[in-house]
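ugh ok so i messed up the first submission bc i forgot one of the chains. this is the corrected input, ALL of the components this time, i swear. 466 residues overall. if the numbers dont match what u have on ur side tell me asap before i send this to the collaborators (the ones from the other lab, u know who)
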Amino acid sequence: MTDFVDGWILGHTLGEGAYGEVKLVINKATEEAVAMKMVDLSKHPDARRTVRKETTIHRMLSNPNIIQYFGQRSEKNMEYIFLEYASGGELFDKIEPDIGMPKWEAQKYFRQLISAVEYLHSRGVAHRDLKPENLLLDENDNLKVSDFGLATVYRLQGKERSLDTRCGTLPYVAPEVLERPYQAEPADIWSSGIILVALLAGELPWDQASAECPEYEAWKNGKYMSVTPWKKLDKFSLSLIKHILVHEPSRRFKISEIKKHAWFRDNFSEDGNPIERDVVDGLRAKRFHKDEEEVLMRTCLSQPELPGKETNGLSTFTIEERPGFSFSQPAHMEDLLLSTQLQTLAYTQTQTQTSLSTFQKMVRRMTRFFVKTECDTTVKRLISCLKKESYTYRINECGIITISSMDRRKMPLVFKINIHEMDGKILVDFRLSKGCGLEFKRRFLKIKEKVDDIIARDSSNHRQVS
Ligand code: ATP
Ligand code: MG
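and heres the new structure output, hopefully the right one now
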């Protein structure tokens, strides 16, 4: 296998973003793993400014529940962002469609989410795209907020501004964001509330929080008790959610109030009942130097608001590399950040087929399974299943099947099936490219059920734990 940069090898694709792939990069000697987000500027010339804003904000953050930013490299047509690797995958993988997860587990993730959001707001940063797909998990199953592509600074030196950009992912967006202008904090809190519903019920309550949406109107008018997802939730959970999903932002629970609510405060045991708890996970935020903080925030604030990832924009400012990185950076990060060999990496470079088994094992993904059949037979079975389900699909030269469809909210849903050999076995790996993570998981489970007879019953099929 060729080195990606001296001493580092390029691993598999971890996920797909709006502007390119996220890949695993591993240090050969130490097995340190880093996630590398790649943005191809020749394909997305408008992305440069978005990436600058994303990195400017992300680099000033340091919190146990936020993906650590390590650094960035700019090449002629490529931007590389190096991030802490979250080996546990995405939170939506833990959500059983239409069921959710046990209350104690939802509580754990929700507490960690609120802790991250509280930290962000303490730094004057609004995330603006909180959703399970942007919440990753580390090897210890701790939640890590990621993707600062839509984040912005709304408070500097105590002076707060309201926001004017309509952005986010519709089912998670607060009603006032659709109206504009809006306050940053309540909007992030709203999205966290929708995430809590997704965790507890495995579904989203509405397409968007606006008058056109009958489900939202019913909720607003208190006529929701017999409808899903609300009827799946117990009174205790609902009592917290009712304070978060409040139409009027000024009446919505603040983070301090969420933390005082008994649902949040008192531990659930694994049987779902509240038990005594000693401490709520505190913030272990590492403070930056005040000067550095202000320079970064000014850079950010001097930027006009970005209308969204899709929009064209001009790159107007530059940022210097930060001297030294956070405490949690891998020891050999410099090789990655300083090497000029990055230029030799073609964006479309296909992954060298070698046994990356030790590293592959670090990835815990539930949207994959091993099969007993050979590659050809597997593809045939999958295709016949896709045909039966009337999916539109295409197969590229590398054997990756791309499926395009619409979800039940009439939103585009695109996902890929990648079939590869791993340790002499055939692995069928499903990955979301575009659309709702929950809907993707529903489709995955349905296809999996249809090809059940070829699935190899192996413990590694359930969850690959390192
Ligand atoms: P989108 O706009 O579609 O959300 P994006 O361009 O902002 O995408 P990200 O959300 O940052 O991209 O990353 C895309 C996917 O890559 C994530 O959903 C996740 O599956 C994977 N990924 C990103 N960062 C990491 C990481 N640090 N560790 C592991 N996987 C990651
Ligand atoms: Mg994302």
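quick check: The radius of gyration is 22 Å. that seems consistent at least. Residues 276-293, 303-327, 340-363, 459-466 have pLDDT under 50 and may be disordered.
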